[in-house]
Write a structure and sequence with these properties.
2 domains; eleven-stranded mixed sheet; Immunoglobulin-like; five-stranded mixed sheet
Length: 318
């Protein structure tokens, strides 16, 4: 009897500490169609474009699983995503003690200090090694976090080039995942819609923006807020709070905003797509229940003491 109990205990312990290989799979899209270089698409302003180059870095992953547990992926896991080369990108994240995965967090770009180090020090096959065309801007600014180039305007006679970079623009996003097991690997599926990368950017006359501001920065913000769709919380790397908005998208009028810590939070504002404040709530407890009567796309802005902006996320009410 003791042997049976001991065997059962060992079995249960092994199950409790079972490790699972986990990979992130990004499906590349132009709206509903697979992403292809030179394919014709439109942004939300109705400006037609053809992408001739698209590359971006993602890094510093965290897996949210089993009821909100956060497990960080080793920092050395990062990737240079090139949608023009494949319809899906698979990034092995490692082996973890997870069962049910809800979402994935990651940053757009390259973390410091790696962002400002010598790219020639990396092995030739490493994502941060020198590339052609180059993904490294210079010593001070570091890598191009995103390089998005193409043709637009009448007869696609105009050129657009947006290279977003800068440590201050190292943005984090969190995305719900759909999971499946493929050959023993737990695959976390998300979709990138790269028409959304050009959201609200006037393309008809062409645009050249290289650096940390203007359209180059807006592309990075679009990656943070729109490209991966159902973002739970899009948070700048300088933010000092953690919060989530759910359900998102919301199919009814009640939306919940939940904070991990409210010590620095004073209030939230809900803005519509025109930037108009439709609702303001003081944060007196960790969870707020909001009633938003009309369908649409909104933004939840979080403020602290002395009106300091802390964080924001997109909210979709269907």
């Amino acid at each position: 009897m003791k042997k049976i109990l001991l065997g059962l205990t060992v079995f249960l312990a092994a199950q409790m500490w079972a490790q699972t290989d986990v990979s992130l799979q990004i499906h590349h899209k132009l709206a509903t169609e697979p992403f292809m270089l030179d394919a014709t698409a439109e942004n939300n302003l109705g400006d037609a474009f053809q992408a001739t180059r698209l590359e971006y870095y993602i890094s510093q992953f965290s897996i949210i699983h089993d009821g909100g547990i956060v497990t960080d992926v080793p920092l050395e896991i990062l990737d240079l995503v090139n949608p023009g080369e494949e319809t899906e990108t698979i990034i092995p994240l490692g082996n973890f003690d997870v069962t049910e995965v809800e979402s994935i967090r990651f940053y757009i770009g390259v973390q410091t200090p790696e962002n400002n180090e010598d790219p020639t020090l990396w092995p030739e096959d490493h994502p941060l090694a020198p590339k052609s065309p180059s993904m490294h801007w210079g010593w001070a600014a570091g890598y191009r976090f995103i390089a998005y180039e193409g043709l637009s305007g009448d007869g696609f006679s105009q050129i657009f080039q947006m290279h977003g970079l800068g440590n201050d623009n190292y943005f984090r996003t969190q995305v719900d995942v759909e999971t499946e097991t493929v050959d023993g690997v737990l695959m976390l599926n998300i979709t990138g819609d790269y028409t959304e990368g050009l959201r609200d950017i006037e393309l008809s006359g062409g645009v050249i923006s290289h650096g940390e501001a203007g359209a180059a920065k807006q592309v990075l913000e679009n990656w943070r807020d729109y490209v991966f769709g159902n973002n739970v919380a899009s948070i700048n790397s300088s933010d000092k709070i953690e919060f989530k908005v759910f359900p998102n998208p919301a199919s009814n009028e009640t939306v919940h905003v939940q904070f991990d810590n409210t010590d620095e939070v004073e209030r939230i504002e809900i803005l519509n797509q025109l930037g108009q404040v439709v609702l303001t709530e003081n944060v007196l407890q960790s969870t707020l229940d909001l009633n938003i009567p009309e369908a649409g796309v909104y933004f939840v802005n979080v403020y602290g003491k002395d009106n300091a902006f802390l964080a924001k996320t997109k909210l979709v009410v269907q």
